[in-house]
Amino acid sequence: MNNFLPKAAGMSIAAILLLATACTNNRGTVERPLITAANTNNFSIEKIELNDSATVLHGVIHFQPKYWVRIAKTSVIKADGKDYAATGIDGMDFDEQVWMPDSGIIHFTMTFPAIPATAESIDFSEGTDDGWQLWGIDLTGKAGHNINTALIPADARKPMADGPLPEPKFTFDTTVVNIHMAGYRPEMGNQIGYVVNTMHGQYDAQQTLDSLGNTQIKVALSGPAQMFLYKIAPGRAMLSPGDTMDLYVDTHIKGLQNMAVRDNNDNLQPDDYKFYYSTGYYGNMDLKQYGMQFHSGNFGDYRMNGDQYTDYIINQYNVLKDSVDTSDSGQMNKEFNNISLQAQLIYAASNPFWVLAANYYAKYPDWNGKIPSDSINVKLSPENIKRIAALIDLNNPKLVMTDNAIDLAYTYDFWKEAGINSGIIEALNNYNRAYAIAERAEPTDDMLSELRKSYPSMADEVAAHNNTRKALIESLDQSMITPTPEVAPAKILDAIIAPHKGKVVMVDLWNTWCGPCRSAIAQNEPAKNKELSSDDIVWIYIADESSPMPKYISMIKEIRGIHYRLNEEQINTLRNQFEVDGIPYYILVDRNGKATGRPDLRDHSAFKKTLLDEVAK
Asked: Domain Thioredoxin, which positions (predicted)?
């Protein structure tokens, strides 16, 4: 697998190799060969030497200085249907950790057997399921960049006629997306990943491709959404409820990106070449987006006060808006970009601390350290907020067409506290709160009646989701969840640990969506049968309702211990009591019932040693 880690952390980055094998061959040298498709931009081929005795790959790695890389010894090339294993390497050793120099570039060569003279292209594979791969590396010098365009129907390549940005449709219906991976080969794998940004949040999944690289995805929507594909090749499409559309993605996209990094050239893409094409209501909108660079480290100054920050973000908005308005792009693109800039201005206004945090960390690059409490003191006054609001049409429903419409919902209180009517943002806020309740299969009737007055499609979606979740949750075996004691929130932990006085209790605060939590549990679980196998240790796991019930039920079956599921008020009270700074978070209870917050036990070795020491007392 291609992993990358800082030198201090010692991360890994599996791999790279390649090239060809023998038969009477002697074709000389191929400089900067065209690469048809790839799953990486970090490794590429600068030159291939083809002769009667060997095939020599001149490889290059581009990556971050002070990170290390490793090239797998199992790397092979494929030519005319046959695999050829690497026979040697110069400039580094196989399976050796090599630290990236300050230049961020490493050159090396690898040797393979000679390949048949009839081979017109080769593939490279690291020889593992998750290793680096390059496909269709041209040996003829004749392949062109538009190699897959002919596979995409002319109707699908037709650009949408310019004009006003299409009005968003608000109706609750299923959208069908037929996906076609142009230039697909089975060697690329049969799974694509996709992300859908809806008005109630983001979710991602995987879909299986057929032998031709086709699949179908169905999404229930009550308003516009954006879909992004990843893995084999990136693609995107704007979705509309009830639409049936085709999304064509050219797998050559990753080949172009690979060569652009290799050649330090951003202009490899032909003028008439697109990475993806789509039909449907929003088919092939030509949208080139302008944006504020919030996370560049150069946006703003973390020492700004509210007035200075307001002046700064308004100026940034006006400069970008002027660029949009004076550009030679079409009416639709200009309208979309102006709406996108308004959405970005909303984000900048409602998240000043996090916007300026990027600037702070750019100057003091300790991303694991906390920002001192007196370093960022920006606070916007109601007058500041009103100046910003004057530039935004908060009633424009097209705001939901921009990236991550759910982020707009979270700004409702920000506008409300300043006495500003937030228009569609209020509806999005009501919709998201109702959707979260429906996720737990709790009653939403009171909230839906108000939402139905403005956006009945959103109310319909929430009601349908509530019914689906209710049926699913009722079908689950919840017997492993211990009922939460019926006491005041401040007394929850005392009531939970009371039956176990005289024993050592390890309380683990976690959630299903927390990757570090899952990793820690996976580390700790085997120890329960080994060094931490003791009747004097009680294992208690506390999650909250943000963990989806079906996932939660399936996971706790594999976690030995007592499981509690707290509501929002209960978990927030517990977090405040122990100043929880994130999860996983551990609370150690000694034999006398004294509970102490122990975030230091995120260190697995400290976790085990501390428990053993407590048991030995």
From this structure: 478-617
Closest CA to 303 of 245, 267, 352: 352
- DSSP element (H, E) containing 173: strand 173-182
User: What DSSP designation does 280 have?
Assistant: S
Structural domains of the chain, ranges and CATH numbers in brackets: 28-138 (2.60.40), 151-278 (2.60.40.10), 306-422 (no CATH), 489-616 (3.40.30.10)
Q: Are 60 and 40 in contact (CB under 8 A)?
A: no
Please state, in angstroms and rounded to a whole number, the distance separating the CA atoms of residues 382 and 8.
Answer: 45
In whole angstroms, give the CA distance from residue 192 to residue 208. Answer: 7
Neighbours of 473 (CB within 10 A): 16
Least reliable range by pLDDT among 5-9, 536-540, 604-608: 5-9
Six-digit token pair at 133? 């791969």
Cβ pair 222, 203 in contact under 8 A:
no
Taking the CA atoms of 180, 176, 433 and 566 in sequence, report the sign of the dihedral they define: negative
Give the distance, in angstroms, between the CA of residue 258 and the centroid of all CA atoms in the same chain: 21
Beta-bridge mates of residue 224: none
The answer to whether the CB of 543 falls within 8 A of the CB of 552 is yes
Structure tokens at 59: 């490889």
Evaluate if residue 301 carries a pLDDT over 90. Answer: yes
Cβ-based neighbour number of residue 452 at 10 Å? 15
Over its C-alpha atoms, the chain yields an Rg (Å, rounded) of 28
Q: What Cα–Cα distance (Å) separates residue 380 from each residue in 355, 413, 603?
A: 13, 14, 39
What pLDDT score does 47 carry?
Answer: 96
Please write the tens of the pLDDT for every residue from 276-287. Answer: 899 999 998 877
C-beta neighbour count of 144 within 10 angstroms: 10
The token pair that represents 313 in the structure block: 């973000």
The residue among 236, 235, 203 whose CA lies nearest residue 219 is 203
pTM for the structure as a whole: 0.77
- The values of phi and psi at residue 249, to 5°, are -120, 125
